[in-house]
Amino acid sequence: VFVDSVSALTGLGSTGVIQKFAGVVEPQETWNVENSSDRTIAEVYVKVGDTVKAGDQLFTYDTTEAEDSLIEGEIEIDRLNGDIAGYQSQIETLQADKAKAAAADQLDIETQIQTIQNQLRRAQYDLQKQQVTNANLEETIANSTVTSEIDGLVQSINDSDSASYSYGDESNAYMT
Which one of 1, 40, 103, 136 counts the least CB within 10 Å of its CB? Predict the structure, then answer.
């Protein structure tokens, strides 16, 4: 058994006075949240000095423009699907006409078929491109809320519209 004096266990010196030590409290980890330059912030859920846990909402981006673009993109997809169906119908009709046509007219019909096939391929390409654009917009809308990755204290919020308050060092991050 090891024996220690009560003064050593409680931090009291030999005179019974609490020993004081100078120092600086530093965070174990700092996370700087950057603001996307092409997006605007709709709402901020925290303020400087708030304690947050991992997963807590910090702020939300405005998705109005992305939602409008998504609606336009869905309309474009419907239009392209209609164009594709129309081109396929035209090709079927021209192929039936070609089988019945005289040899002199078949070359003309084949040229028309090839032209419509090119238009069909272009519409299919545009459809794929629009589907990728819409998927990106849906992801942007789904990821519009920024959540905290760590537990801690909100040290600063650098809002260009209002005064910036902070604890500790300044940085270029939107939120620390």
Answer: 1
Residue 105: pLDDT over 70 = yes
Helix (H) or strand (E) holding 110: helix 103-142
Closest CA relative to residue 78, chosen from 131, 132, 141: 131
The total of other beta-carbon atoms located within 10 Å of residue 157's CB is: 22
Question: What are the tens digits of pLDDT across the range 63-90?
Answer: 999 999 999 999 999 999 999 999 999 9
User: 134 vs 72, 138, 139, CA distance in Å?
Assistant: 9, 6, 9
pTM for the model stands at: 0.67
As a whole number of angstroms, the distance between CA 121 and CA 18 comes to: 83
| Span 1-12, average pLDDT | 67
For position 166, what pLDDT does the model report? Answer: 46
Do 155 and 170 touch, CB atoms closer than 8 A? Answer: no
Whole-Å CA distances, 144 to 42, 137, 174: 10, 11, 15
